[in-house]
Automatic annotation (TrEMBL):
The lineage of its organism: Eukaryota, Fungi, Dikarya, Basidiomycota, Agaricomycotina. GO terms for cellular component: mitochondrion. One of its GO terms (molecular function) is isocitrate dehydrogenase (NAD+) activity. Keywords: Magnesium. It comes from the Eukaryota. This is Isopropylmalate dehydrogenase-like domain-containing protein.
Length: 355
């Protein structure tokens, strides 16, 4: 679906745990924008572990069909992962990314003073490839165990020029919208010279692809081995602007970056493809605090802003983002994860007021 003129249809998938508590906040923030974005219509959709327990599927066909045929974008809450393997259950978020071809996971991490334990100013975005790398093995055949009964395990890693090129383009596009316009390619091609070598070369080559016509001339490019990237992320996070990485490194880097800004409850993401975008807070379903109205709604609200930004509604996104920043800076209305005493709903209404 594409965003056509008049109305914006948003699929709402709260799923499990605190996902149900934080997604209404994201909705309220979008609604508070009023007429500065197209008329919005919210469509409630089912998915998640509870959905699996009730219906036998974690991602009903109807949810995917409505997303594909009726929605312009979506917001996802969080999904519970059962601690032991449950027969027939697989994560709906992984399936959604695949079915909607949401090949990029975009996670901006930035700091707003004054949050306890916070490092110096951080303003970076991790652009993680979502569709391949380790764990997306082509063959499911079991290998016969070799070596006199000693267990062995093997994983296959797939990196393609196609996927590397489109994630690279996404990273360059995002860099263009940011003040520093700097891309760092994260890889480990000193060890994985074939797969990471292909990733690195392909991303590097994006600006000189036919048809680019110097579009990315203003973007500077650096590269870094993933291990030293993590080290430098903790020592001097301010050096990074856009970090683009294959799936596995992107996963690790973005959680590490999230740790630098105080709480998981602050970090948003979007899953983006060429024709669909789905906002999703980075945190999980947080069963330890679910049902208490104390979950921090700001990651979900920022995810809504990010979704709007990705769709081209920059002003709407900026209004939500600055309202969130104001609430954090003021420090009067914060949930317990940030050392405050406010409830989820109280924080939401303070954000809405400022929008
Ligand atoms: P899941 O299996 O769904 O990922 P989890 O137990 O890993 O669940 P997370 O949601 O990843 O839980 O959260 C990890 C920790 O961070 C938990 O202690 C949780 O309470 C806290 N946390 C996560 N999100 C929030 C939030 N929005 N507000 C406050 N605390 C949060
Ligand atoms: Mg988790």
């Amino acid at each position: 679906a594409t965003v056509a003129g008049k109305s914006l249809k948003i699929g709402m998938i709260p799923a499990d745990g605190i996902g149900r508590e934080v997604l209404p906040g994201a909705k309220a923030a979008i609604q508070a924008l009023g007429s500065s974005i197209p008329t919005t219509e919210f469509i409630d959709l089912q998915a998640g572990f509870e959905c699996f327990q009730k219906t036998g599927t974690a991602l009903p066909d109807e949810t995917v069909e409505v997303l594909k045929n009726e929605c312009d974008c979506a917001l996802f809450g969080a999904v519970s992962s059962p601690s032991r393997k449950v027969f027939g259950y697989s994560s709906p978020i992984v399936a959604l990314r695949k079915k909607m071809d949401l090949y990029a996971n975009i996670r901006p991490v930035s700091s707003v003073a004054p949050i306890p334990n916070e490092q110096p100013t951080i303003d970076l975005v991790v652009v993680r490839e979502n569709t391949e790398c380790l764990g997306f093995s082509i063959s499911k055949k079991k290998h016969r165990l070799l070596g006199k009964g000693a267990p062995k395990a093997r994983a296959t890693r797939l990196i393609t020029e196609y996927a590397s090129r489109r994630i690279g383009e996404m990273a360059f596009k995002i860099a263009l919208t940011r003040p520093r316009k700097h891309v760092t390619i994260i890889h480990k091609s000193n060890v994985l010279s074939v797969t990471d070598g292909l990733f690195r070369e392909t991303v590097r080559g994006v600006p000189t692809l036919p048809g680019m016509n110097g579009k990315y001339d203003g973007v500077t490019v650096a590269e870094q081995l993933v291990d030293s990237a993590v080290y430098r992320l903790f020592r001097e996070p301010h050096i990074y602007d856009v970090m683009v990485a294959p799936n596995l490194y992107g996963d690790i880097i973005s959680d590490a970056a999230a740790a630098l800004v105080g709480s998981l409850g602050l970090v948003p993401s979007v899953n983006a493809g060429d024709s669909f975008v789905m906002g999703e807070p980075v945190h999980g379903s947080a069963p330890d605090i679910a049902g208490k109205d104390i979950a921090n709604p700001l990651a979900a609200i920022r995810s809504a802003a990010l979704m709007l930004r990705q769709l081209g509604y920059r002003n709407g996104a900026a209004r939500i983002e600055s309202a969130v920043d104001d609430v954090i800076r003021e420090g009067r209305y914060l949930t317990p994860d940030l050392g405050g005493k406010s409830s989820t709903s109280e924080v939401v209404s303070q954000v809405v007021k400022r929008i």
